[in-house]
Amino acid sequence: MNGVIAVYQKELALYFRSPIAYFVVSVFLIGTGYFFTHNVLLTNVATMDSTFQNMGIMLTIVCPVISMRLYAGEHSSRTMELLLTLPLKNWQTVLGKFLGAATILLLMTAGTFIDLIPMYLFAEPETTTILSGYLGFVLLGLAYLAIGQFFSVLTKNQIIAALLTVSVLLAFWFIGHLQTFQSSYFWWRLFEYLSFANHFSNFIKGLVRSESVLFYGLVCASFLTMNAGYLGWRR
Asked: In which domain, by residue range, is 60 found?
């Protein structure tokens, strides 16, 4: 566990020393504030449904930028070989880096809480639905980061890692639209299940389904496991 903590602390230090992290977090919070103002204050509707939907789409850009440097950045700073020779197990390195990126995600999420102040001051929103939406948002973000971390370890270029991640995330976000072209129930159900947007929409509606929680958990576990396996192969 000490190895995980050491990697985690290193990642956090690198994030807070990087201007990119501050820029990404600032852009996300400004974007969230804009969508909240437009969707709630200007329409006088005390729900976060549309805002959460916009936040989920923004994650397809934000998370790849956060995760792209996790391993590709090691190549840029010429520390990848050192990382591979450290007396750490593969899962310790993978988990430590993932937790570092997840901390940035949680800080971003916490920063959006300020948007809720005027809603609670001037309206009576459904707290359980908002909590469900935030839970789905965090789970969605963690899945995105796991995918981004995997693509970061596959390439030495941060931009390529980000572009690959964005492409995959967008594909899984919109894959649900393929349902309308399917006559087979199997393929219809498969595209529905693989759609990040469909699972996230359940949380936005206040439905915390075990199927959706398990889906995001499986995505995280699968890509983190592949990440650890690739590191083992590299060694």
From this structure: 2-234
209-230 pLDDT, tens digit each: 889 999 999 999 999 999 988 8
In whole angstroms, give the CA distance from residue 168 to residue 145: 12
CA distances from residue 139 to 38, 214, 218 in whole angstroms, order as listed: 25, 10, 11
Structure-block tokens of residue 29: 């919070």
How buried is residue 160: exposed, middle or buried, by Cβ count under 10 Å (0-12/13-18/19+)?
A: middle
Q: Which residues contact 111 (CB under 8 A, 6 or more apart)?
A: 25, 28, 29, 32
How many folded domains does the chain comprise?
A: 1
Contact 102, 145 (CB under 8 A): yes
pLDDT of residue 182: 67
pTM reported for the whole predicted model: 0.91
Triad 24, 146, 7: Cα angle to 5°: 80
CA nearest neighbour of 168 among 160, 178, 179: 160
